[in-house]
What does this fold into?
Amino acid sequence: MAKSVPAALNGRDKVSNKTKISIVGLGYVGLPLAVALAKSFDVIGFDVNEERVGELRHGLDRTFEIDTPSLRASSMRFTTDINDTRDADVHIVTVPTPVDKDNKPDLGPLKSACDAVGPVMKEGAIVVVESTVYPGVTEDFCGPILEEKSGMKSGEEFYLGYSPERINPGDKVHTVDKIIKVVSGQTEEVTDILADIYGSATTGGTFRARNIKTAEAAKVIENAQRDINIAFVNEATMIFQKLGISAYDVLETAGTKWNFLNFTPGLVGGHCIGIDPFYLAHRANEVGHFADLILTGRRINESMGKFIADSIHKNLDGKSKILILGLTFKENVPDLRNTKVKDIITVLRDLGHQVDVHDPLADKEEAKQFLDIDLIESLSDLSGYDAIVGAVAHSVYKDLSTAAIEGMMIGKGLVADVKGIWRNTEFSPDIKRWQL
Ligand SMILES: NC(=O)c1ccc[n+]([C@@H]2O[C@H](COP(=O)([O-])OP(=O)(O)OC[C@H]3O[C@@H](n4cnc5c(N)ncnc54)[C@H](O)[C@@H]3O)[C@@H](O)[C@H]2O)c1
It folds into this structure.
């Protein structure tokens, strides 16, 4: 059969502002990408979550990645009906790739997305996966589903691509329009098209990976590498705690060496670094390799919440009233997915302490529904705590005055500083301090 021309080129000699792009999944990754691409192309965003699409249509992004004026100014359109994406030349899939309760990849959302796109995509369409996956998922998992649902042949009648997303939630410096975008396609021509498309959206330029599996592998080791480096610092921190040395002091000192890597101890939660290494370990296992270092790193980082809670407990006099500041998985984002602050709370409660939790960015209903935590509304008028735990380095907590913190505590309380938020803050001599 004669190979069809990718639709993005159909009738034209290059990608143009008439190229139609559909983004499938409008979350932390999909929405900023869609808004960036809509500056150069005809973009439609599809999501199965009607509430999310309703909010976006009204200019509200609850992830805080895109502000209301930018969202309203964007030419992109939103839909919950996949049929509206039928004329897209390129479908970019940015749905979640979580793990199940056994830490195995859950490709359910990716399968649903392919089930939806397959029947509507036109001949010559390119389907690009942006979700983080293990090597092989795009071609060996998505490809066959798309073939079955479309009745078309992958690499001949439609084409696959992979372009990993590298943004960090809440990072306003390394944004989607500034970072180097890795692109890979099933054919050279598809890679060219993706380089043109993504190259229009970022000033960081594009990097053409040798092939799709290489691009998939590169993304997953970027995050696995971070996880292992943090695990090393976390393990060192556990040792230093026993030796009565501050890990932050040690890191500051060691950091004066030119090639010492800059990682800080703490909780590793969220949708990426705490999850993606399990994807690589799973694929390794399938090909007969036990991913020893990767899984050890995961185990150390997973144990950090309990380690922190036990350390705080040892610094308390009996059953205490504790205020935890911060619940989200990371500073200055509202994202509660896979937050490890929950582990600290659970252990402290199991040890018999009364634990209250505050987070100005987290959604109250989400915290209740998914974590069974009732967030307290406001810090004003709070008092009587034996311990204040700075668990997430939200700017509002960094800005709290000494008087405000001490005002919430009874007499000789404990300030436990998980993130080094108040490392340089002077408290009254009566206040006991604990930090990593
Ligand atoms: N959050 C990040 O900063 C980040 C960074 C790099 C890579 N990633 C990767 O990008 C992917 C997406 O992550 P995210 O943080 O944007 O997730 P998210 O949960 O914020 O957004 C995913 C969106 O997809 C929608 N969705 C789910 N199933 C769908 C389907 N079948 N069809 C259409 N829409 C569907 C959801 O309703 C949601 O709005 C994941 O693979 C993640 O690992 C995330």
Summary: Residues 24-30, 46-49, 52, 94-97, 109, 112-113, 116, 131-132, 165, 167-169, 271-272 surround nicotinamide-adenine-dinucleotide (CB under 6 Å). The chain has 15 helices and 14 strands.
